Prior knowledge:
Elements: H1 2-21, H2 33-49, E1 51-61, E2 70-81, E3 86-99, E4 102-115, E5 118-125, E6 133-134, H3 141-146, H4 157-160, H5 179-186, E7 188-194, E8 200-208, E9 211-219, E10 227-234, E11 243-253, E12 256-270, E13 273-287, H6 304-310, E14 317-318, E15 326-327, H7 342-352
Antiparallel strand pairs: 1-2, 1-13, 2-3, 3-4, 4-5, 5-6, 7-8, 8-9, 9-10, 10-11, 11-12, 12-13, 14-15
Amino acid sequence: MKGILVFSLGLFFICGFTDAQQPKEPVDQTGKVFEGIAELTINRDKTLKRSAMVAHLEFFSEQPRDKPPILWNGYHIALQNTMNHFDYFGHCRITPLTYREKPLTAENWNEIAKCDGNVRLSDGPANPFRTIEKMPSSEPEKDALKKGSFMPRYYRPFDNICLMTNWMFFYGQNMKIDSERLFLREMQFVDSRFLVQGNVESHWDWEFGDMRFVVTMVQGANCAYLPIEVRYVNLSAATRDYFSHVRIQWKEHHGVWVPDVVNAASSHQYGDRRYPYHWLMKFQWLIGDEVPESLVDCKLNNYRVPLMNAFGIRVMRVNASNPQMMDPPAPWERPEDIEITTPSLLSSDYRVYGVKQGTEVGRP
């Protein structure tokens, strides 16, 4: 009997000692970090039920000293309706041209539409003969997309704005990471604290391939603790000069929190050096009954024109009197109600995150 008692006590002692050595899981001391992440997914799912979106894009990139900076404009548009299993994504890059010494504007569109199990694609400049083509129904989407050079841009703002900036317009579905997977499975939560005005700052570790990032996220007290700033700092020696920094403004629309303005900066490889670049995005939304029923019609062969019409934006379209001609689009203009913070955003990252010296930053 004594032997049994001693064995029991010894087992208890060993188990207690082992448990004491287990590292404690980090705890969100604010109680707001994961609440805000839940709000992000809740509001995202509300828009998926029925919504239309236009993002006005402005892209600026520094280049080597002997090359001028790159500046281009465009749109990213989306139309979603889970009731009809309908998804449409379109991306437009606007290119200024000259014809017979007159300025012209060309639109290059990348589009993918999914409806009732069918997938339709279109890629190239807007012209009178361009429609969105249906893929063979017997061919899986992932197999069809591997053929040729078509690479659809799946931009989902609620998920993409928390990713690294260079993924904001990533290609294909194999890199798709939603908010739940990013924060609850991919990243390791480290700690959190309250900032001024009740905002919350949290820190995360993330290993991706051969890179390791320290991620800092700030969530806003006045917008349901949704992310308002996300920074990625790369700790890997080989790519230490790669960074990502995003600032987000939110607004309530039709009872849903949606992105309003996004400023994002990062760096890209050019030769043996990296140079900073910047995205500016201003969003417009239609949610629920605001979306015309005619837009979510699987039989349409052109979604971009009626969708942009719903937002009062004129893009290139076939001339009503002469179907062989195209009517020009309205000039792209930066929305008036946004504040441009490009210089401070880029110069801050350039200084803090160590983009290689020799790049002049500060021209928006």
